[in-house]
Amino acid sequence: MYRFLLPLLLGFASDWASAFTTAYSRRWGERRGQALTFVLRMISGIPLWFIGILFGWVLVVAGCVPMILGLLALRFSTALPALGDALVERGIYARIRHPIYAGMLLEFPGLALLHPKPTALLACVLGLGWVYGQARLEERDLIQRIPAYRDYMQHVPRFLPRLPAKG
């Protein structure tokens, strides 16, 4: 998933290197300095960081899919949990226990790619930790409210669906 972080970082580095037109021109002449700046900025820099940003948007949009499917499957019980809730094992919940949080796990790296600043990266890392902790807390509550949830946990993975067995 993080292989697109390398083009983004290389793109930023290439753009950074393109800011030295004066130094390049003094060393290799004005035409060569301009040409090098053009290559660094327009041929490598912008296309590379664009790939990283595009992949960031792909992650954000892909993260919305399981979230929406999860919310549709739960309907109102996600906002108004009750002691009498039934276990939902249909739709996306047949493949993963926490599709809403799984979507967030895709969105946080996407947001980090879209806004690679220290504060945004820290927020995304904290968000990833929160998702994991929140899922575990909810599972404890669900075991108490819905006893069948304990068995459900044994055959349905938390965030990532199992790959089909080769056969």
Order of SSEs: HHHHHH
Count of DSSP H/I helices: 6
Number of domains: 1
Into which percentage range does the β-strand content fall?
Answer: under 5%
What's the gist of this structure?
By secondary structure, the protein is mainly α.
Question: How would you sum up this structure, described in words?
Answer:
There is one protein chain. The two termini are 27 Å apart. The protein has one domain. It has helices at 5-17, 21-28, 30-74, 99-114, 118-145, 149-155. It is mainly α and 167 residues long. Helices cover 70% and strands 0% of the residues. It is elongated and about 75 Å long. Helix 1 runs antiparallel to helix 3 (30-74), helix 3 (30-74) runs antiparallel to helix 4 (99-114) and helix 4 (99-114) runs antiparallel to helix 5 (118-145). It is built from 6 helices and no strands. The mean pLDDT is 83.
Write the layout of secondary structure elements.
Layout: H1 5-17, H2 21-28, H3 30-74, H4 99-114, H5 118-145, H6 149-155
Throw out a few tags for this protein.
167 residues, mainly alpha
